[in-house]
Amino acid sequence: xxxxxxxxxxxxxxxxxxxxxxxxxxxxxxxxxxxxxxxxxxxxxxxxxxxxxxxxxxxxxxxxxxxxxxxxxxxxxxxxxxxxxxxxxxxxxxxxxxxxxxxxxxxxxxxxxxxxxxxxxxxxxxxxxxxxxxxxxxxxxxxxxxxxxxxxxxxxxxxxxxxxxxxxxxxxxxxxxxxxxxxxxxxxxxxxxxxxxxxxxxxxxxxxxxxxxxxxxxxxxxxxxxxxxxxxxxxxxxxxxxxxxxxxxxxxxxxxxxxxxxxxxxxxxxxxxxxxxxxxxxxxxxxxxxxxxxxxxxxxxxxxxxxxxxxxxxxxxxxxxxxxxxxxxxxxxxxxxxxxxxxxxxxxxxxxxxxxxxxxxxxxxxxxxxxxxxxxxxxxxxxxxxxxxxxxxxxxxxxxxxxxxxxxxxxxxxxxxxxxxxxxxxxxxxxxxxxxxxxxxxxxxxxxxxxxxxxxxxxxxxxxxxxxxxxxxxxx
Length: 476
Hints:
By secondary structure, this protein is of the alpha/beta class. About 50% of the residues lie in helices and about 10% in strands. The chain has a 9-stranded mixed sheet with strand order 3-2-4-5-1-6-7-8-9. A hairpin with a 4-residue loop joins β8 and β9. It starts with a helix and ends in a 5-residue tail after the last strand.
């Protein structure tokens, strides 16, 4: 190489960062230059040992299916063999190399898996069936790593995409990883496909032996007795704007956290956190909202605040105000994170249902959007085994009736709200329409739907100045 050429190469080397004028390779190029490709985590010997053990022993089949279901194998042919063995086991038929060969022949899959010779190879690959469960664990672990890599690849693709806002990408990435964690932690047969009734009866008897379960503690005794709210329930609190939906929801969560020390979460989509704090302090310290809001509390009111301050500080109540709103998927993502951290609340309140952001693209049918939100909240209650309370708006049709008492048919924009809910409580106050009405200061909690019990009306005292509702005769 001439001196001039060498100088040119050195200059190029300075530009590309490589030695002796060679361009520096990016990581992927280095791998290719090194002559190797990354292979997804796998252990074919463990996969063969699992299947060999299953072909040798019926007991090994029972052990293996508690660990893996069949989709965890890296080689598709191993999944095919596994599923054939499990099907035969489920029918009570013996599953050995000869019978499984016949089954795969009947299905037209024998040639695809390598013929009868490969089944005999699997049996010869394992000296004993005693360790099949251990090998199944190895297969499952490799599958988990592959799933983690797939999730990471999708998260990487989201980051490089230019068609989404950064905040949306972060939310989607977090949801992706938390969903992966949930996939790995489902427990034994959570859906009950293979759980015999005898086990369910045993669980039921154990629960009965624990004693009376009145349901979730509520500040309104008659409503608690009527609803008996338990984990998995979706309870809708519905009313016209300003009727008291937020007051009731915050009452429920405040009672749970402050009085009973149970963790509760209140998600507000229409109030700032400062407004919620104003209401919380007014209700707990019995200070008029006006004095709290205008920062004009007198000395006596400050003493009342001082008496409850420590109680509020220790209450396991979370007040959540998502900037820009929230979707059902984002609620699920946060609940999964809490579940992983062992911090799931005993109940969750959402204020309110119709302003949860829809997942569908803009322009979608509004009724379908609200239907999906209602179904989604019910699914969350079941998935995380907690009761969820959601406020809902009633339509103007309520005011068109002669007595202005709300009906289920007045639920705004969706019939699915009524369908998805385990209970629907409609709020009605006579003084909402006539301030001087003889029932001024009272609120009716109309249980219009109740899957777990009766319907009826629970009358309480509406203390608007304190932003709370109380049982009749309590703290007027």
